[in-house]
Amino acid sequence: MNYFVKGNPDLCIGCRTCMIGCVVAHEGKHIFEVDPDSYTFAPRLHMVKTARLSVPVQCKQCENPACMAACAAGAIYQEDHRVLIREEKCIGCKACMDACPFGAIDLKIVTGMTQADGSEKKTANKCDVCHNIPGGPACVRVCPTQALRLVTEEELNDDAQKKRMEAARKASLALSAQNQDENRKV
């Protein structure tokens, strides 16, 4: 099973610290030393913030990724419980963006690389659950309200078991209430 990061909108305050943590984890601390006008800020997640809701949206690391199926260049692949992109193979066609049901993919400029026509190379950009970054997902580590968590197979199975137990408890209470009503009528 692929791991993914899940956001809790009840805890998220929309501070966007997760976005900064993501960029720093993937680009390094040098982003604080460069001219902001010469740098493309390209987090691998997107903050959705409205008057009533705020939560980051990022790749759900699908088991059968539509983005991977749509990628004609073969740039998207699965490895180590993640869906990853090979930037060097990506042709920037946007088919993955169109295929993603969550809107979790965008394009980013690849600094120092150009297209055949001399324009800046753009490639698909999405959450990779901080693949090969010590400590796991940076967004989870830096979130001040702990609104983000890494979901693994064990955690997903534990959550499903808790939901089943709660559903059984509610069904038992409903059946008990129904039996009491029937006994009162008799």
> Any low-confidence stretches, pLDDT <50, length ≥5?
none
Helicity, as a percent range: 25-40%
Q: Approximately how much beta-strand content do the residues carry?
A: 15-25%
Mean pLDDT: 91
How are the strands ordered across the major sheet? 1-8
What's the number of helices? 5
Q: What is the H-and-E element order?
A: EHEEHEEHEEHEH
Shape: elongated
Largest sheet: 2 strands, antiparallel
Structure explained in plain terms:
The chain has 186 residues and is an alpha+beta fold. Helices cover 32% and strands 21% of the residues. The chain is built from 5 helices and 8 strands, in the order E-H-E-E-H-E-E-H-E-E-H-E-H. A two-stranded antiparallel sheet has the order 1-8. Strands 2-3 form a two-stranded antiparallel ribbon.
Please outline the helices and strands.
Blueprint (H helix, E strand, L loop, with lengths): L3 E4 L9 H11 L18 E4 L4 E4 L8 H5 L5 E4 L2 E4 L9 H5 L6 E9 L5 E6 L12 H5 L5 E4 L1 H33 L1
Antiparallel strand pairs: 1-8, 2-3, 4-5, 6-7
List keywords for this structure.
single chain; 186 residues; alpha+beta; 5 helices; elongated
Question: Summary?
Answer:
The chain is an alpha+beta fold. The protein has helices at residues 17-27, 66-70, 95-99, 138-142, 153-185, and strands at residues 4-7, 46-49, 54-57, 76-79, 82-85, 106-114, 120-125, 148-151. It is elongated and about 85 Å long.
